[in-house]
Amino acid sequence: MNLDVERIRQDFPILKRQVHNHPLVYLDNAATSQKPLAVLNSMNEFYTTINSNIHRGVHYLSDLATESYENARKTTKNFINARSDREIIFTSGTTASINLVAYSFGERYINEDDEIILSVMEHHSNIIPWQLMAERKKAVIRVIPVNDNGELVLEELEKLISKKTKIIAVTHISNTLGTVNPVSEIIKKAHSQGIPVLLDGAQAVQHGTVDVRELDCDFYVFSGHKIYGPTGIGVLYGKEELLSQLPPYQGGGDMIDNVTFAGSTFNVLPFKFEAGTTNFAGAVGMAAALDYFSNTGIDSIVSYENDLLKYVYEKLSRIDGLTLFGKSASRIPVFSFILDHIHPYDTGMVLDKLGIAVRTGTHCNQPLMDRFGLPGTVRASFCFYNTFAEADALIDGIMKVKQMFG
Ligand code: PLP
Prior knowledge:
Layout: H1 5-10, E1 18-19, E2 22-23, E3 25-26, H2 37-50, H3 60-80, E4 88-91, H4 94-109, E5 115-119, H5 128-137, E6 140-144, H6 154-160, E7 165-171, H7 183-192, E8 197-200, H8 212-215, E9 219-223, E10 234-238, H9 240-243, E11 256-260, E12 263-266, H10 280-296, H11 298-317, E13 322-325, E14 334-339, H12 344-353, E15 356-357, E16 359-361, H13 366-372, E17 377-381, H14 388-405
Parallel strand pairs: 3-15, 5-6, 5-7, 7-8, 8-9
Antiparallel strand pairs: 1-2, 4-10, 9-10, 11-12, 13-14, 14-17, 16-17
Helix pairs in contact: 2-10, 3-10, 4-5, 11-14, 12-14
Pyridoxal-5'-phosphate (PLP) is lined by residues 93-95, 123, 125-126, 171, 175, 200, 202-203, 223.
């Protein structure tokens, strides 16, 4: 089924606005995506008719709020095809989810000289939590390299895996290069040695179907705000048998069973990892976003984004003096590029004056920038509400930048 993009755009009020007297061309979707009315309305309705703290009260509204929150968990479970609600932990986002795993998994399983494998293309969120844990435990981080096309060098992974490897944590899709990593292959290799795998899905859930059972990953993490949902809410999926072995990450209300000064016991999954008042309204909004995304048709979204990808890739490739990073055949429409002799920041500033929102800088990927010897790039990230006309606006904008600085 073809996507009716013009109709879809009506669902996103912000896309109608002007920026610097130009129609907004929003190409910063990898940083955060815009929100459809379905999400805005669901949160508005929650706050105007149901709002009350969850899991605590005996009163009517508290029951309704708890039901909405737990329904959001079911929606999330079904969205990624987890086995059980107990495998879905609500967090504040991808970063919080990785910190949780790095801390709790580290406490339980990582000792001196043990090794953790990451990759060069990881977002800082999938580096720093592991570094903090490795420092604490005197463990060692090993890194999968990236080739010139912006793909992981899997032959090197074979060499990195050893008896000391305790976990592999890699991104499903690169936020800078757009590369879709061969995660099934990585998981198979890891599991053949009994090593669990965490996938950072921050850039993946909004660009296709994610089935955690089919992938057989041990942990999968993502953020609501990148999949058309609100900020401050995200997900940690973990296999129940693994999560149940991990100690709590943060302490507080709701995550406990019995508290005494002599010692306390902890709640069952998933609550053991949800200390304090969670972002329950955010969970409701994120569930509305997941429903909206599914109802729009994930196959149609993927097919449309692929057409956009080919169109933009082809046009960018033809621009003289433009170098594109990330040339994998397996990719999403996220484009990182530089223009000869023009600083990415200058490119971004001129595009902004034309109403075109792109991101410039290192995109929280400093080791990847170092790999390519770059101070930063311009990144244009598309999604299913972007049009071919907007792609043309980007190309025209780049030509203007070249003229101005040429
Ligand atoms: N991982 C990847 C691949 C990302 O692109 C991002 C955000 O850009 C993150 C992690 C961090 O996500 P958040 O800031 O929502 O926690």
